[in-house]
Design brief:
With 242 residues, this protein is an alpha/beta fold. The chain has one domain: Ribonuclease Z/Hydroxyacylglutathione hydrolase-like (Metallo-beta-lactamase, Chain A), CATH 3.60.15.10. 23% of the residues lie in helices and 25% in strands. The strands form 3 sheets. A 7-stranded mixed sheet has the order 1-2-3-4-5-6-7, covered by helices on one side. A 6-stranded mixed sheet has the order 8-9-10-11-14-15, with no helix packed on it. The chain has a two-stranded antiparallel sheet with strand order 12-13. Helix 4 links the parallel strand 6 and strand 7. The protein is globular and about 50 Å long.
Length: 242
């Protein structure tokens, strides 16, 4: 398992997808494009040296940073990387962008638990994404629930879905918002479990060839496992799965 800063090479998950892991459980990803690399999420603070080393190992520059959401373990090194990589493009979902400034206001119709775990960043993204927007080969998929503006990214070249924290795979495949006694974190750290269940179904319906997540191993051919996780998510929030 590669750990940022440990000198271990990034783990290749697909032709253009590489996973970097810190403390054995916090993932960020490098996606190869024709002009260099897209970094999806930035891990915890202090991860910038390891991320930059991984890019050198792959022999390509980091051209852009794309965030799934604004939790501390996904934005921790964003400011360092923006400062150290002049000219880098910085992307985040439009709804999630407010959380980067610690603006916790809700839109009309939004409800959920108190928003926690958002340290904010000083850097301001130049590009705000909405559902269906493209960043190189990555198509943004709006998937709120874990946070109000969570985004996943589908690599349209090969069907790799980088799902952020909409799912975890540390203790089997679990959708955000689901409670399991031996692994309560997907519920504890998610904002709206009903919304998360709907987003999990939406992500399954893009029919990914592989599922890469913020916490845990990447899964090949994930549809059957996603179906089981989604069924449990709807059961727990008392909604019908249509």
């Amino acid at each position: 398992m590669p750990h940022l800063g440990s000198g271990v090479e990034p783990r290749q998950e697909a032709k253009n997808l590489f996973r970097l892991t810190r403390f054995g459980m916090i993932n960020c990803f490098l996606v190869r494009e024709d002009d260099g690399l897209t970094l999806i999420d930035t891990s915890l603070a202090g991860s910038a040296p390891g991320i930059r080393k991984a890019a050198r190992t792959l022999g390509a520059p980091i051209r852009r940073i794309v965030l799934t959401h604004a939790h501390i373990d996904h934005v921790g090194s964003a400011d360092d990387l923006v400062r150290e990589l002049p000219g880098i493009d910085f992307f985040v979902g439009q709804r999630e962008s407010r959380l980067l400034t610690r603006d916790f206001s809700l839109d009309a119709g939004e409800t959920g638990k108190k928003l926690l775990g958002f340290p904010g960043v000083k850097s301001r993204p130049a590009f705000l994404l909405n559902d269906g927007d493209r960043v190189g080969s990555l198509q943004a998929v709006f998937s709120p629930g874990h946070t109000p503006g969570h985004m996943a990214y589908l690599d349209v070249r090969d069907g790799s879905l980088i799902a952020g924290d909409a799912f975890t795979t540390q203790m089997g495949l679990i959708a955000a918002g689901v409670f399991k006694f031996y692994f309560p974190f997907p519920l504890l750290f998610s904002w709206n479990r009903e919304c998360a269940a709907e987003s999990a179904k939406k992500l399954r319906n893009v029919k990914p060839a592989r599922l890469a997540v913020g916490h845990g191993e990447t899964i090949e051919s994930p549809l059957a496992a996603m179906d089981q996780a989604i069924e449990l998510a709807f059961q727990q929030c008392g909604k019908m799965l249509n």
